[in-house]
Amino acid sequence: MAYEALKQTVWQANQDIVEAGLVEMTWGNASAVDRDAGVMAIKPSGVDYDTLAPDDVPVLSLETGERVEGQLKPSSDTPTHRHLYRQFTGVGGVVHTHSHYAVAWAQAGRAVPCLGTTHADHFYGPLPVTRAMRQEEIQSDYEKNTGAVIVERFREQDLDPLAIPGVLVNGHGPFAWGADLDAAVENAIVLESVARKALDTYRIHSDAGPLDRALLDKHYLRKHGADAYYGQE
Amino acid sequence: MAYEALKQTVWQANQDIVEAGLVEMTWGNASAVDRDAGVMAIKPSGVDYDTLAPDDVPVLSLETGERVEGQLKPSSDTPTHRHLYRQFTGVGGVVHTHSHYAVAWAQAGRAVPCLGTTHADHFYGPLPVTRAMRQEEIQSDYEKNTGAVIVERFREQDLDPLAIPGVLVNGHGPFAWGADLDAAVENAIVLESVARKALDTYRIHSDAGPLDRALLDKHYLRKHGADAYYGQE
Amino acid sequence: MAYEALKQTVWQANQDIVEAGLVEMTWGNASAVDRDAGVMAIKPSGVDYDTLAPDDVPVLSLETGERVEGQLKPSSDTPTHRHLYRQFTGVGGVVHTHSHYAVAWAQAGRAVPCLGTTHADHFYGPLPVTRAMRQEEIQSDYEKNTGAVIVERFREQDLDPLAIPGVLVNGHGPFAWGADLDAAVENAIVLESVARKALDTYRIHSDAGPLDRALLDKHYLRKHGADAYYGQE
Amino acid sequence: MAYEALKQTVWQANQDIVEAGLVEMTWGNASAVDRDAGVMAIKPSGVDYDTLAPDDVPVLSLETGERVEGQLKPSSDTPTHRHLYRQFTGVGGVVHTHSHYAVAWAQAGRAVPCLGTTHADHFYGPLPVTRAMRQEEIQSDYEKNTGAVIVERFREQDLDPLAIPGVLVNGHGPFAWGADLDAAVENAIVLESVARKALDTYRIHSDAGPLDRALLDKHYLRKHGADAYYGQE
Hints:
Four copies of one chain form a homotetramer.
Chain A: H1 4-19, E1 28-34, E2 39-42, E3 59-61, E4 67-69, H2 78-87, E5 93-97, H3 100-108, H4 117-120, H5 135-139, H6 142-156, E6 166-169, E7 173-178, H7 181-204, H8 213-223
Antiparallel strand pairs in A: 1-2, 1-5, 2-3, 3-4, 5-7, 6-7
Helix pairs in contact in A: 1-7, 2-6, 3-7
């Protein structure tokens, strides 16, 4: 019973994403990593949120993916989470949901453009969408390959995963992350909000342009980085 | 008082569809069948959900449609439910609602395309819509004929009712079903969710294509059938 | 203190329309008539719903419009309600709100077409919209003239106010009514629901046709009139 | 501890805008001015609403912007609020949120047209949108310049800030105000409501015209000004 704090954190985040309205049915999972211990913990597969207890949270080796603690099978999306932790080394928590507006953009195969300061306060540019997966990527190691196309998109566009802490998987839905799991939950909430705001903006003006670069810089940098002046610190 | 468990199941499901937000006013009814006993039970017609008690649930002969237990008239949609049970022999429960987004697609006379993995996880292809009914089908035996056009659509397109456990009745609204009534309730909830997701996907990209066949297979089959690996079993 | 029951009914309905989600701020008012006594009662003007008590409900002469009981000024929309009672002699209750979707259709100046059976179950044809009011109708006796353009629309199109128990006032919002105030409240709720369903139907298929006449007849007449067979009576 | 009443008012309003559904995360701030004392009070920056206490509310000099009471840094939007108080001398309270529909119009860079009486009851004409800010206005004194472009829009169009008590900041979101902070909160709620109603009106009829001038006058003036006859006074 070595990972009480990690399992508690993961259990809490899985409650928080339900509370925030991001989860229908059992469609969502949150995970966290303990890099010093070389393990990650994630929601078990297909379990109802209201019967889930912290001790039900399985713990896995980050290296091998094998379960090191817990009786229940981890989420079927585990290989995606694990791939993200292994490739995005600054990431401490990952959240996957089927939240409505993010799914709509993912199903449309479109990146969410940065149309306003709400977006710019949290994501330093458009929310990218992955390319369609190839048949062989789907048929074998599908969940790991889902992580691979996310990482490919970030590498290809030279994006910093901590500056743009979320993505839409084409035809599927959003993944969000952060330096820790609390930040990942916040980013999952904001991702859904800006996806909704962008959709209704286009309904008013289908050619609405992206936010000016100067405003994007101003808003992102007043909350993040060395010269941030938002909040109490 | 022979059918306590059946009536309790039906009563509970009629509460569950309200709780799930699928029902406005009294527009919804859930039923279940006991094939060994040759009976079905269904919500009574036009009764408020909050005054409904399990003993109010009428029980009918599956063969003749005659009431065998209960004081109240069954839902006016009973002949539709009964026709489905008689034609779709693997079905154990049926749910009909006027849930908003499913009704919008039904009123538009359009099938809900499979645009993403949320849909593919539960329905193995588009949600079909029935053809418009003919005047004589409306004027005589309307509710039974509603069932008949559903069955016609499934037969015509060679669809398996347990792989695509729901339908839109043209100009009317959704019916969902399942191997038992719990599954039917879940499918009614998911049907509404994917109808909403499809609508907003088209608002972002009016020509969004259907999900790749390989992804549809992957998602449906990882939750259903012999090689399923989702959940704890 | 002669009209306790009437005031209680009106008070309750004004709570019910808030509970049903039809009212933002103080934008809504319900009234009822007692034709034997020659009086009507209506919500007072600009009073918060949660501080309103049954005894605050003013009672007016149906003939003269003068207050016969109560300390508070009646709703500024009172002359509209009174005109409807005087012209539509089968009406026992009237509800006015600024419910969202009905307002959107009213602001668009468009009647809500009958696109499905939900609509047909309650309204025997499209929900009409009044013509734009003329400058002199606005500047003098505005609220009474609001009633007059409603009545004009029903007379002109030869509509039965009890078969189509609601209307959209152009650029303004919905009025609904019924044989009694309970029916008026129900019709106000359904009017909002079918306005929303019609809007989303058009988003899926902008040329969605009206419901077949045979289906309109079937659904309206199975709930209303001599051959009705819906519900327990 | 000289400004108890002012801080209490500001604290309450910051709770009220959350309760009214205008605030996601911590995106919103309400302030009030005491012109006799030459001070304003505003929500502190980036603090959760549910841990905020009245004594946490910082008080600032209206003249210099310097903090005169309180331990916490004021909202980063403080210079915008302060500029509005200094330029719009009849204003007693200001509310800024990222409420969904108002943000969608702001991101679209479009004024909200007056399409109905709900709008006309509260805003005496379209809700204006500011021009895009220039790079130098963004990079230096951004928050004060946000106030400046608001004031510029009102001066340029010769608008009375108390007759049109709100604005959309281009690419950002709404500010609302009023003679006191209660009125500002109410105006922020109504601004969001009419932004939503306008959007859905355009979805039904993309060329819906503005409300007739005579109706705009009638509705605005029956609630405001010398001849108002709405409410109990």
